[in-house]
Amino acid sequence: MDKLKAIIKREYLTRVRSKGFIIGTILSPLFMTSLILAPVFLGRSAGPDKYQIVALDQSGDRRLFESLALALAPSKPGQPRYELLREEIDSQEELEARRQALSERVADKQLDGYLILPPDALRQEEIKFYAKNASSLSNRIRLEGAIKNAIQERRIAQEGLDAEQVRHLTRGVELTVVNERGESERGRVLLAFLLVMFIYITVLIYGVAVMRGVMEEKQSRIIEVLLASVKPFDLMLGKVIGIGLVGLTQYLVWVVSGVAISALSAGAAVAVAGFDMPKVSASLMIFFMVYYLLGYFLYAAFYAMIGAIVSNEDDGQQAQWPVSMTFAASLVVSTLAMENPNGVAVTILSLIPFFGPSLMFLRIAIGAAPAWQIAASIIILVVTIVAVTWVAAKIYRVGVLMYGKRPTLPELTRWLRYS
Questions:
Q1: Cβ atoms 112, 106 nearer than 8 A
Q2: What is the spatial distance between Cα 325 and Cα 209, in angstroms, rounded to a whole number?
Q3: How many CA atoms does the CB half-sphere of 216 hold within 13 Å?
Q4: Distance CA 218, CA 310 (A)
Q5: pLDDT in tens, 330-341
C-alpha cells in the first residue's frame, strides 16, 4: 500500500507542478471569462456614441423621415444616437450634386453616411445607404430595421389603417420551452452539452497521458527498475489514479472559477446567447464528478494497456484509434440524443458502459434519466471497469517488458493465460 501511495504521489505531483498544467488550468477560466465579458466591452467600443447621417429625400413625404428618425431613437441604455438630417431633393441633377458633396464629406470622415429616399420609396424593395464603415454589422442591422419599420408604417397609414393598432395586432410571440419544474430548457440543454464536452475532452486528454506515461517509462527502460521493487498491477493502478487526481484537481479549480464567473456575469447582467445560464445544482456537479471518474478509469485502463503493448509513438497512435473513436462515437450519439433523450435506443445506449459517461450524464443533466437507470448505469460501469482493469493488468505486466514488434491478437490471448 505504501508503494502504491508513493506511485500515486509521484504521478500527481509531477504533473501538477508542470508549467503546462498550471498555465492550462489558469488560462481556461480566463478564456471562459473573456468569452462572457468580451461582447460587453466590444459592444461598448464597437462604434461612436453618435452617428451623423443625411437623408436625401425625394419622396416629398416628411412623415416618412419623421418615422425613420423616431425608429432610430435609442431604445436601450448604451445604444448610439443617430443624428438624422433631412435634405429635400427636387431633381435628379440636384441629387447627383448633393451625392458628390456628401461622398467627399464621408471620405473626409466629417459624416458617417447618407441614404437616399427615392420618389417611390414606399414601393421600393431596396433603399441605398452610403456609409463610412460599410462593414459595421450592428449599424447596418439597426438602420435596416428602422427603415423597414418606417416604410411599413407609412404604407399602413396610406391604406387608412392605424399603424399602432396594426403593429399591436401583429406583434411577434416567442416560444419558451419549460420543463415540469418550471425551468427553461434552452439554458439547461446548453449547460448539459458543455459539461459533456468537458468530460469528453478531459477523459481523452488524461487517458492519452496514461498511455504516454507508460510508453516513456518503457522506452527509457525505467520500467525495468520500477518493477524490481513494485508489482506491475500497483504500478499501473498508481499511474491511473495519480493522473486521474490531476484531472480532478483541474476540475476543482474550474468549478471554483465557474462559480466566480457566474457571479460576475450575473452582476454585469450578461446573458449568453440571448438567455441566462441556469443554476448549477450540487447534485448535478456530484454526478459530473462521478461520471468523469468512471469514464476516466474505464478508458485509462485501455490506454494503459495500449501503452504496455506498443513500443513507439507511431504504434501508439494507431493502437489507440479504436478506443478514441469509441469515445468519440459516444459524444456524437449524445448530441443526437438531445432530440429525444427518453427514446428506447438512447436509453439502451446510455446503459452500455462505453457510452454511459457521456450519454447517461447528458440525460441526467437534461433531467430525463430516472433513478433506477442511473443506478444501473453506475453499477454496470463499475463492473466493467473492474473487468477491464483485470484484463489490462494481465497484459500490462507482460507488455511493459516486451520491445520491438507489436503483439498480435493470439499473443495477447496467451498473455492473459499467464499466471
A1: yes
A2: 17
A3: 8
A4: 9
A5: 888 877 777 777
Helix H segments across 268-337?
A: 282-309, 313-319, 321-337
At position 96, the amino acid (one-letter code) is: E
**pLDDT tens digits for range 115-149:** 888 888 888 778 888 887 665 666 778 888 888 88
Q: Which domains, and CATH codes, for the chain?
A: 50-166 (3.40.190), 184-417 (no CATH)
**Torsion 388-393-398-402 (CA) sign:** positive
Residues 6+ positions from 354 with CB-CB distance below 8 Å: 298, 326, 327, 330
The model carries a pTM of 0.62
Q: How far apart are CA 94 and CA 220, in angstroms?
A: 85
Kind of pairing between the strands at 129-131 and 81-88: unpaired
Backbone angles phi, psi at 113, to 5 degrees: 165, 175
Measured CA to CA, the distance from residue 49 to residue 361 in angstroms comes to 47
Residue-wise burial string across 365-403, b where 16 or more C-beta atoms lie within 10 A, e elsewhere: bbebbeeebbeebbebbeebbeebbebbbbbbbbbbebe
Q: Pick the closest to residue 393 from 215, 233, 237 (CA basis).
A: 233
The gap between the terminal CA atoms of the chain, to the nearest Å, is 22
Convert the pLDDT of each residue in 46-66 to its tens digit.
Answer: 556 788 888 998 888 888 888
CA dihedral 12, 15, 18, 22 (to 10 degrees): -80
